[in-house]
């Protein structure tokens, strides 16, 4: 691919990295495995990225981006909460576990920890905002700050992805095995909003 612009070359290599990680995990995403997946010579990788750590950093920047919060259509708060959580799991399943793999790997590496932590904080902030909107829509309030709840729910989400991969089942398995139970637990921290005095 001698005439391929460097930006396009990077994009194809990042795409290849996602496929390798989805199939075999971050540990398998060696430089050689990535270029083989992309159908490029090894020199292409070193032309596009300074080293393997820079490649992973760019991959984390691209992949660890939270999707928009779900907008439930259910009529009651418990049903809407379950729908909200279930749709989060469907979003997570669509990443094929790549986000969870990168998050775990990134927080354990000095050169990747800061960026990974910032990206995970984005997940927490967005989820906290979504939980607050959901409560507001139904005239409810959380007895625990949404910011704290979001961290716990996101920990559950990552665990659900790992469980799904271990069981070798898809999004429907994770949804059926967890969203309802998590909604019941989370719903226990909500109550009708008190009128402002």
TrEMBL record:
Keyword rRNA-binding belongs to the record: no
Signal peptide residue numbers: none
A Pfam family hit: TetR_N
MF GO annotations: DNA binding
Sequence ranges assigned to domain HTH tetR-type in this UniProt record: 7-67
Keyword tags: DNA-binding
Residues within the DNA-binding region(s): 30-49
Residues forming coiled coils: none
UniProt cross-references to InterPro entries, sorted A to Z: Homeodomain-like_sf (IPR009057), HTH_TetR (IPR001647)
Protein name: Regulatory protein, tetR family
Lineage, broadest ranks: Bacteria, Bacillati, Actinomycetota, Actinomycetes, Propionibacteriales
């Amino acid at each position: 691919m001698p005439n391929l612009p460097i930006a396009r070359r990077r994009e194809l290599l990042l795409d290849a990295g996602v496929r390798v990680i989805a199939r075999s995990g971050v540990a398998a995403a060696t430089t050689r495995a990535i270029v083989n997946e992309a159908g490029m010579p090894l020199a292409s990788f070193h032309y596009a990225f300074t080293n393997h750590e820079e490649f992973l950093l760019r991959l984390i920047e691209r992949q660890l981006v939270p999707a928009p919060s779900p907008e439930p259509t259910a009529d009651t708060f418990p049903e809407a909460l379950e729908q909200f959580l279930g749709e989060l799991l469907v979003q997570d399943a669509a990443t094929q576990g790549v986000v969870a793999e990168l998050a775990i790997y990134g927080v354990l590496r000095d050169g990747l920890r800061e960026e990974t932590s910032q990206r995970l904080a984005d997940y927490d902030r967005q989820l906290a905002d979504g939980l607050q909107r959901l409560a507001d829509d139904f005239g409810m309030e959380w007895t625990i700050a949404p910011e704290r709840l979001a961290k716990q729910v996101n920990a559950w989400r990552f665990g659900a992805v790992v469980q799904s991969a271990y069981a070798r089942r898809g999004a429907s398995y994770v949804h059926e095995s967890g969203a309802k139970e998590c909604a019941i637990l989370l719903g226990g921290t909500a109550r009708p909003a008190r009128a402002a005095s």
